[in-house]
Structures are given as structure tokens and as C-alpha cells.
From TrEMBL:
Pfam families: Polyketide_cyc. This is SRPBCC family protein. It comes from the Bacteria. Residues 10-130 form the Coenzyme Q-binding protein COQ10 START domain. It comes from Kitasatospora herbaricolor.
């Protein structure tokens, strides 16, 4: 397993950052390589990705979710094996620190080589930068799930 930890400060209140992150079907708007996410129910999502020309499909389950604090997930089936958590920490009333941790099992020689040179770290860092830009440009979330799982 490989571990990735990245963080970024976003110029929006914690509630806005958290609410937007719960809009899983909008991840393709700021996550590179994510082609589509279908939300099955409050806990389950189906992902379609294409990274470096390799298409993958997998399912995830939200295992823990606390509004304005964190969302934790794990894969349940498919081509990808990972667990992760994104945390939201208010810096002040209008700024939020978004911190992502992810454990990932690289499959095959290409993924193992990419992992060795830090490609996953750069991917997550880029996704967080795009999330920051997405949120700051909009100024508000497009929706949100406030339930606790």
C-alpha cells in the first residue's frame, strides 16, 4: 500500500467546502482522470476513470461522514483498491484547510512505477488545486449532503 497526504487552503467557509465535496457526481469538474461518478445511494458510488490511457471502474462506500469535518471511504469492488479520508478544518470564518489522506494499492508494473516516481502525490495535489480554484471561482457550493454516516 502507498500513502498520499496532501492539503490546501481554500478561501471559502468550511460548510461550503464540505458541502461541495459531498457532490460526488461533480468530481469530474475538478478531478483529472475522473470521467463519471454515479451516486447509487447515500453511501455508495460507482466510478469511471481514465488515467494515462488506462480505463478503470470501481465502487466506493462512504464508511464515515461527519458534516463540516470529514468524509472517509473505501473501495468495495472493481479495478482499484484504496481507502481514504478528506478532512475539513476551519481556519477562520471564510477559509478552510482541506486535507486528504489516501492509501492506494498500485496494480501492475506501470502503476507501481508511477507510484515510485510520485505521480499519485502530484495527481492528488493537482486535484486539490483544481478544487480550490473551482470553489473560489464559484464562491459557494452547488449543493450538499448534511447527513452523518
Amino acid at each position: 500500500m502507498s500513502k498520499v497526504q496532501e492539503q490546501i487552503d481554500v478561501d471559502v467557509p468550511v460548510t461550503a467546502a464540505y458541502n461541495q465535496w459531498t457532490q460526488f457526481e461533480e468530481f469530474p469538474m475538478f478531478m483529472e482522470g475522473v470521467e463519471e461518478i454515479t451516486q447509487i445511494d447515500d453511501r455508495h458510488n460507482h466510478w469511471k476513470t481514465k488515467i494515462a490511457g488506462v480505463s478503470r471502474e470501481f465502487d466506493t462506500e462512504i464508511v464515515d461522514q461527519v458534516p463540516d469535518d470529514h468524509v472517509a471511504w473505501r473501495t468495495t469492488s472493481g479495478d482499484v483498491k484504496q481507502t481514504g479520508m478528506v478532512r475539513f478544518e476551519p481556519i477562520d470564518a471564510t477559509h478552510t484547510r482541506v486535507m486528504m489522506e489516501m492509501d492506494f494499492q498500485p496494480e501492475g508494473m506501470a502503476e507501481k512505477a508511477a507510484d515510485m516516481v510520485g505521480m499519485l502525490d502530484r495527481q492528488v495535489k493537482g486535484d486539490l488545486k483544481r478544487f480550490k480554484h473551482f470553489m473560489e471561482k464559484r464562491g459557494t457550493e452547488s449543493g450538499g449532503y448534511r447527513g452523518r454516516l
